[in-house]
Amino acid sequence: MAKKTKKVTLRDISEKLGLSTAAVSKALRGHEGISEATRELVLETARTMEYKGVPEQSPDAAPNAVVFIIVNRRELKEPHTMSTYYFIDNALKTHGCQVAIHGVPIDGDDQAIFDLIERDNPLALFLFGRFSQKFAEQLQATGKIMIVIDHDFPSMNFDVVLTNDNQGAFAAVRHLVHLGHQRIGYIGDNSLSPTFHDRYNGFIDAIRYWGLELNEKHIYDLHFINSFGDIDYSPVMERLDADDLPTAFFCANDPIAYILSNGLNARGIKVPEDVSIVGFDNLESSQFQYPPLTTLDYPREHIAQTAVELLVWRMHHPQAPCRKILVQPRLVERKSTAIPHKPAL
Predict the structure, then answer these.
(1) Cβ contacts of residue 119 below 8 Å, gap of 6+?
(2) Which residue, of 4, 156, 209, 307, has the greatest Cβ tally within 10 A?
(3) How many Cβ atoms from other residues are within 10 Å of residue 62's Cβ?
(4) Average pLDDT over residues 316-334
(5) What is the sign, positive or negative, of the torsion defined by CA atoms of 32, 38, 43, 49?
(6) Domain named HTH lacI-type: which ranges (predicted)?
């Protein structure tokens, strides 16, 4: 029986050349910080050792290459996550790539993902959603191409694809203003993610643009991360002052809008007759709410295609400056918004 040949890994190459595995990976991917002479040496050594991860020109030229999608473990089975994964998977398949999705803790405290990166040598890493900056830095140190989706690390250089959250919030307020609302509130959590903070800023910009009163009592900057690290939206109704309500609310995402709408209706405050509500993300369930939710559409399919196109571009331009691509969301008008109710005289 023939002896099975041991698969060559990045560590094997690094030990042979006396380089770190991060340096070897960067050399193979053409990243900055590696001299041309070292890159050529690493490539030649990898070919000699019959290492299977020697890069081709593009994903199209590397059939069956694997791309890792790394997701916060707590959000792995969320509808937003699975829907986006579906579209990324479809987009990568057109380039002959395989996709593997991995759930890890938000702080990245899990050596297993780094072992998998070492073992499987993925073509690229798609980092989807919220993670700590420390974890993002550790992933960057592997030397892999990284595309960040639906999140941002303002102090770091990454290729990023996300919605134009500021403009989406502006569009939500514009819709309410056109209906005749002048007292508009906001519910979100500015500390949850940069995207939530951008949606808040877009709301504030729109209120000022339309010359409306900025009533601090109607702005709820809540904290949705509980002591277990889970997202808990119960503070929406716990903190809401039902005796002092605006005629409309813009909510930073659809789940917040669901809680608000259900909670108001349960208290006899009708949506949209008494209070109009706009959400953000256009989750599939938003159309089945009572009443169906007006919301900003998160263009998942377009974002997935854009992220894959960015990956292809990055492979051809490894030294180019990082890109941040903003995709404009679209307002989906349903029955949770209406002309403000005017009390009888």
Answers:
(1) 9
(2) 307
(3) 18
(4) 93
(5) negative
(6) 8-68
Instruction: Please check whether residue 116 lies inside any domain of the structure.
Output: yes
Clarify whether residues 125 and 234 are in a common domain: no
Q: Count the domains in the chain.
A: 2
275 and 240 in a common domain: yes
275 touches 249 (CB < 8 A): yes
Q: Please list, residue by residue across 295-332, b when 16 or more beta carbons sit within 10 angstroms of its beta carbon and e when fewer do.
A: bbbbbbebbbbbbbebbeebbeeeeeeeeeebbebebb
Strand partners, 160: 148, 324
Crossing angle of the two packed helices 194-209 and 165-179, in degrees rounded to 10:
40
Query: Is 339 inside a domain boundary?
Result: no
Residue 213 covered by a domain = yes
Report how far residue 336's alpha carbon sits from residue 291's, in angstroms, rounded to the nearest whole number: 6
Look at residue 295 and give its three-state secondary structure: strand
Amino acid making up residue 292: P
Report the C-alpha dihedral over residues 119, 140, 89, 300, rounded to 10 degrees.
160
pLDDT one-digit tens code per residue, 304-313 = 999 999 999 9
pLDDT digits (tens, 9 = 90+) for 21-80: 888 887 877 666 677 778 778 888 888 888 876 665 444 545 578 999 999 888 888 888
Choose among 138, 161, 163, 343: nearest CA to 253.
163
Task: Look up the domain containing 187 and give its range.
Answer: 165-298
Q: What CATH number is attached to the domain comprising 117? A: 3.40.50.2300
- 37: which residues sit within 8 A by CB, 6+ positions away? none
Angstrom CA distances, 270 to 35, 295, 311, stand at 66, 18, 47
Q: For residues 31 and 107, state if they share a domain.
A: yes
Cα–Cα separations (whole angstroms), residue 29 to 60, 173, 329: 16, 44, 33
Residues 266 and 308 in one domain: no
What is the value of pTM for the model shown?
A: 0.79
